[in-house]
Amino acid sequence: MKTLVWVEHDNAHMKDATLAAVTAAGKLGEVHLLVAGANCRAVADEAAKIAGVGKVHLADNAAYEHALAENIAPLVVDLMGHHDAFICPATTTGKNIAPRVAALLDVMQISDILSVEGDKTFTRPIYAGNAIATVESSDAKLVITVRGTAFEKADATSGSASIEDVSGAGDAGLSSFVGSEIAESERPELTSAKIIVSGGRALKDAETFEQVITPLADKLGAGIGASRAAVDAGYVPNDYQVGQTGKIVAPEVYIAIGISGAIQHLAGMKDSKTIIAINKDEDAPIFQVADLGLVGDLYKIVPELTEKL
Amino acid sequence: MKILVPVKRVIDYNVKPRVKADGTGVDLANVKMSMNPFDEIAVEEAIRLKEQGKAEEILVVSIGPAKAQETLRTALAMGADRAILVQVDDGTEVEPLAVAKILKAIADEEQPGLVLLGKQAIDDDSNQTGQMLAALMARPQGTFANTVEVDGDSVTVKREIDGGLETVKLALPAIVTTDLRLNEPRYASLPNIMKAKKKPLDNKTPADYGVDTAPRIKTLKVAEPPVRQAGIKVADVDELVAKIKALGIA
């Protein structure tokens, strides 16, 4: 089977999410990559170094700069003439593009796979991760999105794939990019952070969140996450949200502070290696999944913990 | 313009789903069902656009068993004008691709200026239908919408993306899928629930639209996720510090 993997990037650098998708694709057979963007040859050079990649298709066109699905999907459909599967990391970009491609190919997409069980058999979470379904596709071509935290990252340095330029139809004339507001952060990106310190509604307000959570995260070199309640209450921007409808993370250590542990939140973090919970309610559901729990007032505990680490 | 809002009847988001012992699926017998939360947000947004004078009519559609009528009545009570139920047998799951094909056929008949869907259903967690519908209609898509502004013949959508927000401008007709923070859905008042009973609701079947709903994906097994080992509770911060240091992260 020949797979085409979407390379996630910002036109200057490849993003880590790509590497897990390459690992998943490698389980199906020959791996080709697609780098689509504007002035993005550097990304193709980077992608060509991923171990196990046979070829990098480079589509460099102003119409592809912001990965608008209307422009990208026809390009992918063209390339699917000689590929058997299209695989995207399950990022917001991947989730935006892949179903559009699937419908144009008249196939059902398989979303957010956790494992590859066979040529056409995969596992995926349903009901906010409360059940794992094993599914088999009967379609001639596969369109798949891959949960990044479920696969090892492919080695990004030892490959030497060739780069082939492809042209696409370019601008479909249906949509245009207006602008973006990207949160600047020195911190490790949430989905690739080894340690995450996460806060919930108990933090009261944005200022308290910053005062309590940030020093601990700084001390540990950790990413900062939040529950939906904390995001909805405006303590932190919404791209901090960990959960079924936010980011799915699986760090080495996840520290949940003032988070009760609703189903929606657990769906986003319960595959973390070690979960530490600090909460004043000893019956909070978070303690049912926590490896280490401490019951008490977070305003006393967290500063003391930061101090002593 | 007319706004089309597809809604899905799903397990209530507060209910913890139980996997059937024989591994064939999740037990939905006698479980509370509700409108998919993202769809409530879509209905609310459609109503707000109507209140702003940007839309004249809101058509809600559900594809599901006879009981999905309740979900449509809820949408009508919130403020939608009329409904279509595309009925399938109880227990029949219709995949996003087939749903998108049925919606495409309805859109061909009704010619909506905007289709508003939830970004994903909380049962199958697919996050596909809106994008697939946009592809089949050959129209632009604004997924994971945080803000929607209709202006003349275009719609500007602020989207929630990894790392922040992005704004795109789409030519109408367009397909928009809602994220959580787009709005706070209203509750239906009792008088409106009574009025909703009189609003028109058409009954259809997938065959009326010539769509084959045979599944492309076969579910071989549904299992419980791996259970985490119960952990320990520590007595104080010193003990927690010692355990954290033992993990080798500090």
Give the helices and strands, then pairings.
The complex is a heterodimer of chains A (309) and B (250).
Chain A lengths: L1 E5 L10 H10 L3 E8 L3 H7 L5 E8 L8 H11 L5 E5 L2 H14 L3 E5 L1 E2 L4 E6 L4 E7 L4 E5 L15 E4 L9 E8 L12 E5 L6 H15 L2 E4 L1 H5 L20 E5 L5 H7 L4 E6 L12 E4 L2 H11 L1
Helix pairs in contact in A: 3-4, 5-8
Chain B lengths: L1 E5 L2 E3 L21 E3 L1 H15 L5 E8 L3 H11 L3 E6 L8 H15 L3 E5 L10 H9 L3 E11 L2 E8 L2 E8 L2 E5 L11 H7 L4 E4 L12 E7 L8 E2 L3 H11 L3
Parallel strand pairs in B: 1-4, 1-6, 4-5, 5-11, 6-10, 7-10
Antiparallel strand pairs in B: 2-3, 7-8, 8-9
Can I get a quick summary?
Chain A is built from eight helices and 16 strands. Chain A has 309 residues and is α/β, with parallel strands linked by helices.
Please tell me about this protein's structure.
The complex is a heterodimer of chains A (309) and B (250). With 309 residues, chain A is an alpha/beta fold. In chain A, helix 3 crosses helix 4 and helix 5 runs parallel beside helix 8. Chain B has a single domain, classed as HUPs (Rossmann fold), CATH 3.40.50. In chain B, the strands form 2 sheets. Chain B has a 9-stranded mixed sheet, with helices on both faces. The model of chain B has no long low-confidence stretch (mean pLDDT 96). At the A-B interface, helix 3, helix 4, strand 5, strand 7 and strand 8 of A face helix 3, helix 4, strand 7, strand 8 and strand 9 of B.
Descriptive labels:
heterodimer; A: 309 residues; alpha/beta; Rossmann fold; 2 domains; 7-stranded parallel beta sheet; 5-stranded parallel beta sheet; 8 helices; 28% strand; B: 250 residues; 9-stranded mixed beta sheet; 6 helices; 30% strand; globular
CATH topology grouping of chain B: Rossmann fold
**CATH superfamily caption of the largest domain in chain A:** HUPs
Q: Which structural class fits the helix and strand makeup of chain B?
A: alpha/beta
User: Quick check: average pLDDT of chain A?
Assistant: 95
Give the N-terminus to C-terminus distance of chain B in angstroms.
59 Å
The DSSP helix count of chain B reads 6
Rg from Cα of chain B: 21 Å
Count of individual beta strands of chain B: 13
Number of domains of chain B: 1
Total DSSP helices of chain A: 8
Strand order of the largest sheet of chain B: 9-8-7-10-6-1-4-5-11
- The count of domains of chain A is 2
Radius of gyration of chain A over all CA atoms, rounded: 21 Å
Architecture of the largest domain in chain A in CATH?
Answer: 3-Layer(aba) Sandwich
The total count of strands of chain A amounts to 16
The CATH H-level superfamily of chain B is HUPs
Low-confidence stretches of chain B: none
